[in-house]
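Suppose a colleague, Dr. K., hands you the sequence of a protein chain of 661 amino acids and asks what its three-dimensional shape might be. Before reaching for any lab equipment, you can write down a predicted structure in token form. Begin with the sequence itself:
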Amino acid sequence: MGNNVQSYSDTLIALSCFDESEMMLGKSVTNSSMSTIAYNQSSDDLENEKNHPTYDEEKGVKGVNSTTFIISTLHSSRILTAIDDSGGLVRFLNDDPLQPQTVTIVVVNANGISKTFFDLDNIVMSNNVINNENNNNSWLNIFSSSSQLQQFYFPLKIQAELEKLYQNTPCLELLSRSIENDYFLIEDYKDRVQVVEMYNLRTDKLEMVFHQRAESAVTAFGHGNPAVAISKHNALLAYCRGANSITIYLIENSLEISTQSFPRVERILSVDFINDDESLIIIAQEKESLIPLIIVWDLFSYMDNAIRILQDATELFSSGSYKLVRSCGNIILAGSDGSVTSVLDHTLVKEILVPTIKSKKGLITLDVKYLRESEWDLSVHHTIFYQDGERDNAETKPVIVFDKEPWIHSKGYARISAFLDDERTTQLFIGVTTVQVWYRKDVNAKEQLKYIWVAPKDKKISIESLKIGQREFEVCLHIKSNQSMTTESVLNLHWPFEVNAVNHACSALWHLYDRRDDPAGLQKQQEYENLVHRTERLIRQFIKKRPAIWRLIDVRYDVMASLIKGRRIRLIQKILNNEESNPWMRYLHTPRLNEWPKKQKTSDLEIAIKCSEGRRQRDAVMVGFLLDYYSDNAMDNTGWMFTVSCAVPLLFDHHLGKKLN
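The predicted structure, expressed as tokens, is then:
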């Protein structure tokens, strides 16, 4: 296991040598445990070794005391530490940003946890090195450090499990799977509901307790040791107890977000976060095959290929017998034939790490720049493109929607549309401030909103490039200030593959609310209200069809904050107080104090309080909805209340303290 010390241009390697007795409680603690090392020796050397008191003639090995080596690759030398005489699972803890020069290492075996730390600035060269400068075995040169040793017993729950099950059986796999990043995790079951306790190895304290919801617990039972993963940014915990389902928790408040089952799977062997914590890679045992499955799950995607399975992994697991090793962000497959393979670097796995975009036909580029530079743009305000790239005047040809920006007062403002299919049932509309996709089955049917993106109130957009295909478009937009022609930012949208339509719809409701006073006249106001209604309906339908994905999107994006800023009171009430009998339609919102992945944010409750200022006191009902939702759910898990305490002073500042009653 390696740990790169960036500020010192050094990589430290920890190597622990120990016997399986270190992983059993049946051995005597006072006896020195012995490890076996095989040697390639000459016949003369072998004869000499037979006189060694711990030499085993049948196995051809000799015994050595359990030991742990810490090696500096920069100095090609060993660093003496307080854990030199310990053996077991060895892990570097992540660097402390406040003390980057301090290295912390833990060694875990059946007797507990040993921890040492030392300062890289205080390492000095020993006399062994000074007197043996020409030693060919230079990596054995020794540095000494003033490291300190701390030893801890396991929590009572795991201590009891070890005493029951591992008196004479090694617990190596159990302990290995219980350590993730800087944490030691153990599980318990209370009333058949899973509880996972997470201890911080750096502070030696219980940091969080995760409670699985009762409706998810029915899928949690399995056999084998747990599979655990913590996201790179410490935002999410993925946990599985040998079953065919994985539960995702939000670490900052211990709340369960979602549980995903995999019907083909008998037991999950390994799980890891990849793609900057946007996906999970899962290695699992299939019910009717000895060859494991490799699955990639895009956590926040609602596309059909969000879960991808490598159907035939025979080439990867060709050795038959294998062992999975996870270290330093890598997943290593060690075969019984001595082969070592990086799972993530294998060609077959690389093909499924990122979803394949399967366009129904190739995209064609529309010459939108020509429109701006020609007389066409002066005489035609609304251009419609067809699938063959030809264009026409939308004012004289049938289209699904004609004007969908009722806050624009000029009748002749420039806009571009394009049909996204040969049947002309799907229309892309790009105006001054929005990008929209509308669908109509036939001329007698009512149009349906499929996608919407709205620029903030003080911004406008211009098209830099546009490509269209069968129910697909790719556009590059320049976003500018209303008072300036200078491009402030660039936005690329590739619908439907590389956009999150639900997040964009929620943001659209916020920006549409900011434009509520802009439509002039009754007709324009009705058109505005209709667009808001259609956008809200798009979100409602998504939640109803895919509540599990909505819950994940809720922690990935600030969708609830957008709905609050958009004053969508009825929709918020529906999300928080869903009374449907289906238990999967509950817990559709999770309180947070961090933006994705780990940036501090204003809580949704505080946003709701601030939105009730001044004339908008009627909007204070949103505060009541949130408080009721959090307090009702807190009967099962106090994590629901963790944003409320921060918001109490703000409640009284805005004269909303009575809502705490």
